[in-house]
Structure formats: C-alpha cells, structure tokens
Amino acid sequence: MKKSIALVIPFLILAFHCQGQIKENNSLLEQLPHHIKLSWETAPETSQAVTWRTRADEPKGYIEYVEATASPFFEEHIKKVQAISRSYTSEDGIWYYHSVNLQNLKPNTPYSYRVGNKDLWSEWSEFKTATGQNEPFKFLYFGDVQRYIHSLGSRTLRQAVLANPDAKFMLFAGDLIHRGGLNTENWNEFFPAGGWAFQNIPIMATPGNHEHTWVAKETKEITPLWNLNFAFPKNGPKGQEEQTYYVDYNNIRIISLDTSAKITAAQQQETYVWLEKVLKEFDGDWIFVTFHHAMAGLARNRNPDIRFPEIKALLEKYKVPMVLTGHEHLYARGRMGADFPIYAVSVAGPYQNAIQFSDWIERAGTTMQLYQEIHVSENQLKYVSKTVLGDVYDAFTITKRSNGELQFEEVPNLPAESLVPTKDFEKRYDRELVKSYEADRIKYLQRKKE
Q1: Domains of the chain and any CATH numbers
Q2: pTM of the entire structure?
Q3: Is the dihedral of CA 287, 379, 333, 138 positive or negative?
Q4: Separation of alpha carbons 217 and 261, rounded Å
Q5: 53/40 Cα distance (integer angstroms)
Q6: Digits of tens for pLDDT over the chain (450 positions)?
Q7: Is the dihedral of CA 22, 26, 31, 37 positive or negative?
C-alpha cells in the first residue's frame, strides 16, 4: 500500500504541474495578438491590410514590417506603424480590434510582418504584393463554412490551402459563420480554422445573411464584428462600405454584392447604378461577381424563383463570365436562359441541404464538402471544384476568342454526380418533398442524357 501511495503522489504532483502549465499557456496565447488575417482595402499591388484582435488590457496595436529576406537579421530595416484600434464588448468579454492598411509598397515584392505591442508580438509571417501585370494565377473560392467550423469546416480550408499553397487569395461567398454577432462557436472557430494560412494568404469575402443580425428570423443590419474583423474597400455605394465593393487584382475585377443588406428602395436603385458602372468601366480581362444568395433557391424546401432579376439582367448585359455564390448548402452549376454568366453554388462546411432539381442546373451535388480552384490567364478561365479529399467533382473552362466572344466547355469524364439526400432528410423535410425526391432525381438525370 505504501509503495502504491509513493507512486501516486509524484503522479499527482506532475498532473497539477501540467494543469498549471496548460492554464498559463492558454492565458499567454490569449494575451498574444490573434485572429490575424490579410485582406485588401486598396490596390493589391501597392498595399496590404492586416487586422487582428487582443484582450482589453492591450488597447494599442502596432505592425512591424520589412521587405522579406532569407536572413533573419533584418532588425535595422524594420518599419513600424500604429494600428487603428477599437474596443468592442462581446458575449465572451471585452476585446480590442486592430487594423492597419500598409500603403506605398513595392509591386511583386515579399514582405515580412508581425503585429503586437510591448513584449507581446505575433510570429513573423509573410505576404507578397500583386504584380499588377497580366499573368497566370489562381485563387480559391469557398461556399458556406458556417456551422461546426472547428470540428469539420476547418478541414476544407486546410486541405484547400495544402493543395494550393500558391493561391493568391481566398474568396468566401458569405456565411463564414453561423451567428455573426457572436465570437463563441463562430469567429473564435473560423479564424483558428484558417490559422497561419490567413496570415499569409489574403481573404476576400461577401457578407451572408448570417453575418447580419437576426430579429424574429428577419435579417437586419450587418453585425459590428464584420467591420471590426475585416478591412475591405470602401468604394461601394454609400452606406454599404466594406460590404458591397470591388477589388482589382492584376487583370481581373472581383465585385462583392451584399444581397442581405437592409437598404431602402432608393438605395437599391443606387446599388444597381453602381453595379452597372463598375461592370461597364472595367477594361481588364475578366470580371467575377460574388454574392451570398444563389440567384434562385435550390434547397428542396425553398422558393425556386429568381431572387434578383435586376442584377441578373445586368450580369447578362455585360456578359459576366462567372458568378460565385453559396447559401443553399449544396452544389450546383449552370446557366439561366443566357450563355453567360455561369452560376456556381457551393458549400465548404458540413451542414447540407437536400436539392430541388431545377431546370437550369447542368451539374449538381449533395452531401459533400467542397472547395474550388479558379485558374486565371489572359484568354482562359479554368474552374475546378474538388471534394475535401482533393478529388475533382466538377470542372469547366471559359475561353475568350479573338473576337471577344466567350466559349464554355465542360471538362469530359467527370465522376458520377453525388445526389445522396442529406442526413436526417426524412425528419427535416415535409413528407411530400421526401416522397418525390427519387422521381425528381431520375427525371433530372434523364434530362441530362437528352
């Protein structure tokens, strides 16, 4: 018995010591700058926006940056800039949110940076400014991450980056999280899910309905945490800054439309005028438009009508090649009565919906986590949708002919479509929607053969 006690006591001492170490380490991690991410507020070839968060006892923030070198001895060349810092009280405490927009940078140049203050600094990370030239590159596009981010949504982000470390940016089509006004289980899971990747690869995002506040199941204004967490351009319509905006990266323009914005009828018309202007004036090679809601409802229990006919008309008028959306928690790709745009609907997270097989769909998918690679060159776009395992699920090209006309071509020999109903299908949907599913699926597949 004495021998047993003698063995147990050192074990207990070690256990309590480890608990103390864990507590201390967690406390230190919380004090350090975190949720660090890159985005763009101004031109990607000459600027870089950086945002991060600290606890309330560290109200000031700074960024140190320098042209990157292979040598670690670059101290004498470091530049230091104070951040714009704002406090915010959330359900998990008081935080300071910090933002810096570095400007007058050199194009096509790698920089090292870190953020912090006093003795509490992040690790050094790198970014590279855009060239501003017409050259081949690729970016990543994600549908809704939204729920169960830590456990399952994270794997999509990480596998996408591991497979594409040279991606120039990550584009999120809204509903990055489930409750935009809460940190717990939302932003506190989303930013660690991307982790170091967000510190090295810029983010672009359009707001979804879940980034807005909800009152009695009605979407209201965007939550303060959107503007605190991100630094996006303020070149959109008045009152929609950093929600509706555009970014010009090399030879492409990405336009974000906040389709959840609570605005007046007059403001809506202003948005249409603004959209036509930024579509018409761009003289680069390609335009992408992203907004959260798919152009038409696709989840089996939603209205399948066109949601934004005025926007649709403008996209067709200016022959926008590709529209990147989410919201439906499934995969779909197709055209709606015109050769262009190609509408893509995708989902990165684990929450999935059952599909209704609308006539405009050319390829569909359910019960999968996906990410998309979009390869850009002067005369061609290549779109590849992959499962979280890296398997190609959908792919097509859009080629620009010498006369400026666009040609769409689906990549041959794509795998069979995954049309498995979602988990708890029978519980979540009305009996008639469940009963008619198999007949609708067969009809859809027969239509594609004709």
Answers
A1: 36-128 (2.60.40.380), 137-449 (3.60.21.10)
A2: 0.93
A3: negative
A4: 15
A5: 17
A6: 444 444 444 433 333 333 333 333 345 667 899 999 999 999 999 999 999 999 988 899 999 999 999 999 999 999 999 999 999 999 999 999 999 999 999 999 999 999 999 999 999 999 999 999 999 999 999 999 999 999 999 999 999 999 999 999 999 999 999 999 999 999 999 999 999 999 999 999 999 999 998 776 677 899 999 999 999 999 999 999 999 999 999 999 999 999 999 899 999 999 999 999 999 999 999 999 999 999 999 999 999 999 999 999 999 999 999 999 999 999 999 999 999 999 999 999 999 999 999 999 999 999 999 999 999 999 999 999 999 999 999 999 999 999 999 999 999 999 999 999 999 999 999 999 999 999 999 999 999 988
A7: positive
